[in-house]
Design a protein that fits this description.
By secondary structure, the protein is an all-alpha fold. It is 68% helix and 0% strand. It has 1 helix and no strands.
């Protein structure tokens, strides 16, 4: 059974409610944490490669 379609655009609820804002903020925070984690892994890898090249000498 298909869902009823709204007859007017004004009947569609806006996606700027408090719940949507909280979810958007949480998602952006998780994205920032993932990017920071990737940067840390990248920097650690570069430092270990440089240390390995220096020790192999």
């Amino acid at each position: 059974m298909p869902l009823a379609r709204p007859s007017k655009r004004s009947e569609i609820a806006p996606r700027d409610s408090a719940i949507h804002r909280r979810k958007r903020v949480r998602n952006l925070a998780i994205l920032g944490a993932l990017i920071a984690l990737m940067a840390v892994f990248y920097l650690v890898t570069i430092v270990r490669i440089q240390a390995g090249l220096g020790a192999a000498g």
